Amino acid sequence: MSMKERIVSTLQMLQPAHLQVLDESHMHSRGTETHYKAVLVSDRFAGLNSVKRHQLVYGTLGELMGEFHALALHTYTPQEWAQAGAAPASPTCAGGGH
């Protein structure tokens, strides 16, 4: 199972209405299966600020977090997602060994 598949499988525990995990490793210089972007829409985020949302995701991923370098998180409630419609594009890597 790829790292992306493991991340997707684990994040299903948050019962997402929408989940997209992108492997963005090709945009960085640390090799394969190192950088990911997750767009996660869940009722579980209602009433939580972005820090609490990210902590919930990190806690859900647990030890898996130590197996890759970076995870860009875009977390929304279903209502926020309906208004946003899409997550922002990832910036180009600035180098620095990332």
UniProtKB/TrEMBL annotation:
Pfam families the UniProt entry points to: BolA
Signal peptide: none
Gene Ontology CC terms: cytosol
InterPro entries in UniProt: BolA, BolA-like_sf, BolA/IbaG_stress_morph_reg
Single biological process term from Gene Ontology: DNA-templated transcription
Record family assignment: Belongs to the BolA/IbaG family.
Protein name according to UniProt: BolA/IbaG family iron-sulfur metabolism protein
